[in-house]
Amino acid sequence: MTERRMTAGDTAGGGLDTPPRLEVDGLLDDPETRIIVCCGAGGVGKTTTAAALGVRAAERGRKAVVLTIDPARRLAQSMGIDSLDNTPRKVTGVGVGEGDGVGRVGEGGELHAMMLDMKRTFDEIVEGHTDGERAAAILANPFYQSLSAGFAGTQEYMAMEKLGQLRARDDWDLIIVDTPPSRSALDFLDAPKRLGSFLDGKFIRVLMAPAKVGGRAGMKFLNVGMSLMTGTLSKLMGASLLKDVQTFVAAMDTMFGGFRTRADATFRLLQAPGTAFLVVAAPEPDALREAAYFVERLAAERMPLAGLVLNRVHGSDAHQLSAERALAAAENLEERGIVDQESGKAGLRDSAAKATHEYTETPDTDAETDTVDSDPDTDTDADVDEITAGLLRLHAERMQVIAREQRTRDRFTSLHPEVAVAEVAALPGDVHDLAGLRAIGERLAAGVPAGA
Q1: Which of the four pLDDT bands, split at 50, 70 and 90, describes residue 304?
Q2: Core-most of 37, 266, 285, 380, by most CB within 10 Å?
Q3: CB within 8 A of 442, min separation 6: which ones?
Q4: 119 phi, psi to nearest 5 deg
């Protein structure tokens, strides 16, 4: 799927070190794309990216649902929904004919959003796969309540369950999953295996032994099994807890195979054509190291990688003026020496004026340039020189940030030159509404930061 969307000509700049460009609109418009999984470290804009993809997909004619597992409530706020829960809710004001009317390619698009309720999803599994009496016994069991609320990996496993449920309903032609911020071996992929191993493991079989053997002999067997695993386990687990666990295991016995079967089915769904993984990162060393790890792990698991979304990338409309030249121009202004420069320095003055315009809202750049060349003995000219020098230094700092981000990105692309990249220009503020999500979607589609 990735190779079909990327060609050698689809690059942001055309250089040898420029990665293939990720065609986001092509990904969203492809009817064969049914699942998009956004993964990456925390704090890189993953939830916002997932929401922006959902908005853009809906307004390009897809019937999309966004499943977020991030505990933050920003997604609900951005979409104008009071709260998200375990039931998909339609987002008003999103779809074909809504928004600014630009880029709409289909009909019937709409967007739903939901936030995973881990415990409620576990409850639904119990209720859907056992009879009423047994389900009530399981739901009331103290050990089950603890397991469903906080067992390590349960959140990721339930995300897989919910994804499988959404796909099975076939109510949406595109599901976008916002995974938890996770570094430990892609917990979203590993949790089903871990939980399945736990439910099928020796520990569970030992806990089931008393029910199968019965009486004091059974408890004696249990104690022997416990001591084989660890000498302190029987001290840590009191009689009441052991009874709760035993009751839970006996009631869940018939469901254990179902957990493993559904987890395996969802895992295969993630590997199948129609699924696309997007790794989300920021142009920072730690974030891109995490991104490299995700890329390598997805390749090892044979998961279809669509590309890398590089968020909050800085650009400049005055990139011709380097940081060094901007600093030199600022020093000349501060020393009042720029007026004595020969005509050969006119290009430097013109670049300085352009950089100044980038950081101001004054449209009359000619007036600014003329002021720089005016009499430096006046107070007004001195003030203008001081302001211009300050803006030039700000421009130099911006260019240094751009250069640092470029070096960081180049290190990633040198290791993974085959990975398509969409660079998303940094916004001046936080995204808090649909307009902001649309702006992110437009930047995603453009694939390169402004001024690059």
Answers
A1: very high
A2: 37
A3: 56
A4: -65, -40
